[in-house]
Amino acid sequence: MKPRYAELAEQLIRAIGDGTFEVGASLPSEVELSAQYGVSRATVRSALERVQELGLISRRKRAGIRVEASKPRVAFEQSMSSIEDLIQFAVVTERHVQSVAEISASPGLAAQLGVETGSRWLRTEMLRVDQAKPDSPICWTDVYLEPLIGAGIKKELRNSSGLICEMVEQRFGRVVREVRQEIRATGIPARLAKPLGAEVDAHALEITRHYVDDRGAVFEATVSVYPADRFTYVLQLKRYD
Description:
This protein is α+β, with helices and mostly antiparallel strands. Helix content is 33%, strand content 32%. This is Transcriptional regulator, GntR family.
């Protein structure tokens, strides 16, 4: 089941798309939307953040909430600075599983994942899709799980859209304490060009994430390839006095 803010975001997106809220017009305030849809202001705020990420609205002090476009922009923009941001990303996108198989880590893959060469992993290959643009996948992701863990949630991998590390926590009690992330520029590999609907060697971002538990062990790793024109990674740096 989707969180209420995700459902509300979809309702607002539809209302903007069908002209209920016209471009250039102002949306009701957070208080008014809260009363209209019967949800808390926190839920309204989270929903508006999602709609704003798609470029449909702008929010400014004193100016209120203004409709800027009737259709989402092409690129998916996401700010990720916490595990909660990853959870939101999983909620507002769909996971389309392509294959699930147990593999042995080659020297190159082992180095990338930070695991031993020859170690066994359950690999799930999948596409991440923005619900508003199902024909243009956001990314291709290879998810690597310890075999025992993978076998325990294999059914959920295909039937659920939630974050995989949350499934692991619920089933095995392995809690994510930190996510180590590496980002590099790359080209679209030939094997991913067709499923992503992109040109071979077109510009892309490759993001590798290592999910670390209380003991400092990596029990999940992901490698994602994002076509450059479909995803913007936002990082905010703040000064603390």
